[in-house]
Design a protein that fits this description.
By secondary structure, this protein is mostly helical. 70% of the residues lie in helices and 0% in strands. The protein is elongated and about 65 Å long. The two termini are 15 Å apart.
């Protein structure tokens, strides 16, 4: 499905009034096993998943498609609906935004073959490289980067060689 088609179908969703939405929640709290009511709630709050995806997509590698990230967000939305308890004092929207964002980040991390510590080291090296480039007016050598980072040159090469992105064979 193209992103344009997805946006057009999103515009066709009829939002319930606050009163109708409150009644729908009441029905859901009476029977949490009712998937029809849960699905109606998902449709009503799908905009929250799209909102979070729009904000997160900016910082993600291109190896993740828009549709993948939206599906991660919708999984978080479903989880939020199923676990929400109004007596805890939080508005559903606030609770759902955290659950959706967390679900997206968890799914992306689970797809990454490198641990977060390695990603952090790669990021530090890239920042140091950019700073050196600004200072000396040319791309720095691995030795110059190693000197600034206080690491052996071989370690810099090892860390940078682990920085790979897995792309789909269909891309």
């Amino acid at each position: 499905m193209s992103q344009t088609q997805d946006i057009d179908s999103y515009k066709k969703i009829t939002r319930l009034s606050d009163e109708d939405l409150e009644n729908l929640w009441g029905q859901y709290f009476e029977d949490r096993k009712n998937k029809t009511i849960r699905n109606k709630l998902i449709v009503q709050y799908i905009y929250l998943a799209r909102y979070v995806v729009g904000r997160i997509k900016v910082n993600l590698p291109s190896s993740f498609s828009f549709e993948d990230i939206v599906s991660f967000g919708i999984e978080g939305l479903i989880d939020a609906i199923e676990k929400y308890h109004p007596n805890k004092g939080a508005k559903f929207e606030s609770y759902a935004l955290m659950r959706i964002r967390g679900s997206i980040i968890d799914k992306i991390r689970s797809c990454d073959i490198l641990p977060r510590t390695m990603r952090r080291k790669i990021k530090e090296i890239k920042i140091a490289t950019e700073r050196l480039k600004q200072q000396i007016g040319r791309p720095p050598t691995t030795k110059e980067i190693a000197d600034v980072m206080g690491l052996p040159e071989t370690k810099i090469i090892e860390i940078l060689s682990s920085d790979v992105n897995i792309n789909s064979i269909y891309d």
